[in-house]
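WARN no homologs supplied; continuing
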Amino acid sequence: MKTRFFIVMGVSGSGKTSVGKSLAYKLGWDFYDADDFHPPENVAKMASGIPLDDSDRAPWLASLHDLISASLKADQPGVLACSALKERYRRRLLDGNEGVRIVYLKGSYDLIRSRMSVREDHYMKPHMLQSQFESLEEPPDALTVDISGSVEEIVDTILQVISKMSFSRRDTASGRCERPASRGAKNL
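OK structure emitted
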């Protein structure tokens, strides 16, 4: 099964949006930020420093699942930046959606907290990072990428790995998806 959709996951501040946007741009795929799909009540909760619970996340995960499913059915490959911290959240996103692969952006608490402390206008504040690490269930079967480098280095690492594997690349002139020239590569 060729990869037609990536979920770039990790704790808040790991670089999901920056890496996801850059990866999507380089592949010629659509980009989606899961934060844009939170209902206003969830954003207000997080902005107030209150972590979300599973009942808050359920409709959000359902809408993300539907987005992935619709993109795949429309043959529109994409990249979704999404925390997807727990295995059951990832299972919900992947359910029935073949051709989706997970990229896990992994970094230390200290590195990510230092990055979060300098970003502005984001509802996730640095003091909430500990709860993200406590909730994180590292995915054993994802492409795990160390985030100590720059966004460009991280994306280059991802592209190097997937260039050896089967995935779709949008032909930007026609909008079609086609396989890369390499044959016989295993899936990501």
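Residues 5-175 form a domain with the Rossmann fold fold (CATH 3.40.50.300).
OK
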